[in-house]
Design brief:
92 residues, 3 helices
């Protein structure tokens, strides 16, 4: 990755990384996604629209989908006094 970034910079290309966190020593600007906040706000938005029966689908078999995002979904549902439905993982 460092080699690619160096080559891009040689050509005056601005490099911005979108990631969950910057797990590298590269000196880059990056946009990090707060998966817990995204999950909470998305769930709260759907609740505000009147949805009550929701299921959490994990798009990938990753910790983002089935750990943090699901836990946040469950907490948001319970905070609204709703029963969280099951989580569906890839391949199920």
């Amino acid at each position: 990755m460092e080699e690619l970034v160096d080559r891009l910079r040689e050509h005056h290309v601005i490099v911005v990384l979108l990631t969950r966190y910057l797990g590298t020593s590269l000196d880059l600007d990056y946009i990090g996604a707060d998966n817990e906040r995204i999950g909470r706000e998305a769930t709260q938005h759907l609740i505000q629209l009147g949805h009550t029966g929701m299921v959490h689908f994990a798009g990938t078999d990753s910790s983002t989908g089935h750990d943090r995002a699901f836990d946040t979904f469950v907490r948001a549902m319970r905070a609204a006094k709703l029963v969280p439905s099951l989580m569906v993982r890839p391949g199920q």
